[in-house]
Write a structure and sequence with these properties.
About 80% of the residues lie in helices and about 0% in strands. The mean pLDDT is about 85.
């Protein structure tokens, strides 16, 4: 009978890849919205609705992860407390990475 891990690999992958991805998505949409405002002051409202909905989904997911990390930091029991504790740092790293890559992309166009 095969041994099953205590924590599914999906949860570990979510905790490792989710926060940086959400941070990068947020930063990219912020840079995209700023470029659109600067370049096209009368841009269609649907552009901003799409950018806002993308940023909103990423922000909600990131908030959920940060609340979980805060609960673990305050002493709640978790299967992988070390992964929960690095969530804020990986989210910040993803946000900075997203700002840098979106900024470089904006400057090269």
């Amino acid at each position: 009978m095969p041994l099953t891990p205590a924590v599914p690999a999906r949860v570990q992958a979510l905790l490792l890849l989710g926060p940086p991805a959400c941070g990068a998505i947020l930063a990219g949409t912020f840079v995209g919205a700023a470029r659109k405002v600067a370049r096209e002051p009368l841009a269609p409202a649907t552009d901003f609705i799409v950018l806002g909905s993308i940023a909103g989904v990423a922000a909600v997911a990131l908030a959920f992860l940060l609340v979980g990390a805060r609960r673990v930091r305050r002493g709640a029991v978790a299967d992988v407390p070390r992964l929960w504790r690095i969530v804020p740092w990986t989210a910040a790293g993803g946000f900075v990475f997203g700002l840098v890559t979106a900024g470089v992309h904006a400057l090269t166009k």
